[in-house]
Amino acid sequence: MKVINNTIMKNKCDVLVIGSGVAGLFTALNIDPSYTVHVITKNQLSKSNSTLAQGGIVSCVDSKIHYEDTMKAGCYYNNKEAVNLLGRKGYQMIQQLIEYGVMFDRNNSGGLKMTREGGHTQFQVAHCKDETGKEIMRALSDTVSKKNNIKVREKVFALDTIVKDGIVHGVDVLVSGKREVYESKITVLATGGIGDLYESTTNERASTGDGIAIAYRAGANIKDMEFIQFHPTALYHQSKGKKLLISEAVRGEGGVLKNKYGEAFMGKYHKMKDLAPRDIVARSIFYEMQRTKTSFVYLDITHLSKEFIQNRFPMIYRMCLSEQIDITKNWISVAPAAHYIMGGIETDSQGRTTVKNLYACGECARTGAHGANRLASNSLLEGVVFGKQVADDINQALKQLIFNEELVDNEWPLIKKHTNLSDDHKQHLELGALTRIEGRLKQTMNQYVSISRDGKGLIKARYVIDKLKEKLQQESNNNIKYYELINQLTVSELIIESAFRRKKSLGAHYRLDNEINNQS
């Protein structure tokens, strides 16, 4: 690290990874140890959507079955090459996770214990009780800490890429209110999802779509932003914000969705009943809530033994008990919540974006593997498979790359150019004002760009977003919340535009004004 322009600290590395979830850490671990890798995260290392993943990771023991299940869940809108890649590489990547120390649940024969989730025709999901993501992150974090070539730095907020002549040379960041520069030969975006654009989400608070907004400002192609998955079963409570996910594996082990009358209703919506693909289950719950004039439905697993529930779902049991719900005796009140985006930064099979030396992987990337709706437990799988793809390509690319010594270090990041901001602005938004703008944004997305949407609502949403952007362009602030909000508004706009352009319903994108039945 050195000082430039008297005030700006400059960091230098071969590979910069932005994001510390499964995709980011797996990428870092697979970079050749002769290269320096810096991993930066705006949060703590333990705070990521990867850590929250409960259900499991698809084992891909039978790649043909996995291919068909993935394609069907995605309404055959998937990129076939990407789906095939998951199937071919998946089992190998799980073996690598085991080598890193991941303690998957085992059956009596010592093999991986499998469960089944929505959209799966067979038991093919490996798991670590109901905290699979947490266990994988533990193992990856421990392994990263032992690598001399990898440096992890927390509480670093990425503002924008440094782009010269269409090539990314690093990133501008904010650390404790001060600007720093990371110069790198390769930059990898692994920043996760967009759940924090909505009032109710299963995501971590930090899921503000930063990577997608950064890539967009750098000129990268963004694709399929209309496809947002709402997880069918988040624990219902009246407060807004982050919701406890009730894993799909609960239904995979025999849980049944019921309405307020105690009726099991999924049979009238899909032949796979409670294990239909997520988009279908979420909409079916939404219909039942409207029909019965309630804010939630119930998930019943009381027919399973207490011993089984406590052993298979210890975290869910414990967390529900803290909300005065004993799931061995009482039904769980659940409702859909924003969970995952299938679109994002367009990449090829190696994770390369349309901007040179900029890669993306994990949820922020649009590989095409998920199509119009993600199959359960394919997210962790995509993170490791494409993390490895990215690393392998980078290892080859680095052989020909050198640092650009002619970078202009005192230029403002793109984020300020895109918002007409400069340091001499005298007006500053207080944190309370930022919170109110964010609240209006989330309310708008919930009302008009949720499980179902229509043209008129999308036009209204765009109008509100434009007004909120105007408000931010008039004033300034220098804290992370301010820049997060710029990213949230940018990504919301991209989602609304994509949703408006796609006139027909497909997968997770459901247009009330042009319904096409895709529930087969």
From TrEMBL:
Residue ranges of domain Fumarate reductase/succinate dehydrogenase flavoprotein-like C-terminal in the record: 440-514
Active site annotation, chain numbering: R278 (proton acceptor)
Enzyme class: oxidoreductase
Domain FAD-dependent oxidoreductase 2 FAD-binding: 14-380
Record's subcellular location: Cytoplasm
Signal peptide start and end residues: none
UniProt catalytic activity: L-aspartate + O2 = iminosuccinate + H2O2
Names of the cofactor(s): FAD
One Gene Ontology term of the molecular function aspect: steroid dehydrogenase activity, acting on the CH-CH group of donors
Keyword Oxidoreductase: yes
Protein family: Belongs to the FAD-dependent oxidoreductase 2 family. NadB subfamily.
Stored NCBIfam families: nadB
The protein, known as: L-aspartate oxidase
Species assigned in the record: Alkaliphilus metalliredigens (strain QYMF)
